[in-house]
Amino acid sequence: xxxxxxxxxxxxxxxxSLLPYAIYxxxxxxxxxEFAGYSNxxxxxxxxxxxxxxxxxxxxxxxxxxxxxxxxxxRETFVYLPPEKPSAKKYYxxxxxxxxxxxxxxxxxxxxxPKEQYKTYLKTFQKVADSLKSPKFK
Length: 138
Known about the structure:
By secondary structure, this protein is mainly β.
């Protein structure tokens, strides 16, 4: 993470999967060096700007989280494991992102899982999202 980005990561790995299930809750302060703001983050993360084959992006939709307007989208991507080996195997991930504008900066909640098991912890992710409370929301 860059300067002025604060977050937590919750991971779980099952014995039959090389990829973890992960939930990230990040706060990007207005001084962060990665994104110019809420809209810039969504623009750069909700479409295949690098034209990577096999990456798929869902439509950005409006939602409400803790009484706040937010935007959400899904995307599918991949990783090669082990990354340093020529014989690396391609593994697909599916992710859900919720982006919430705040008074000074923005929040990103992200759920990432092996594509085939995406629904396994989706309800857990939604519970984490629904429990989010912050003075920055005021």
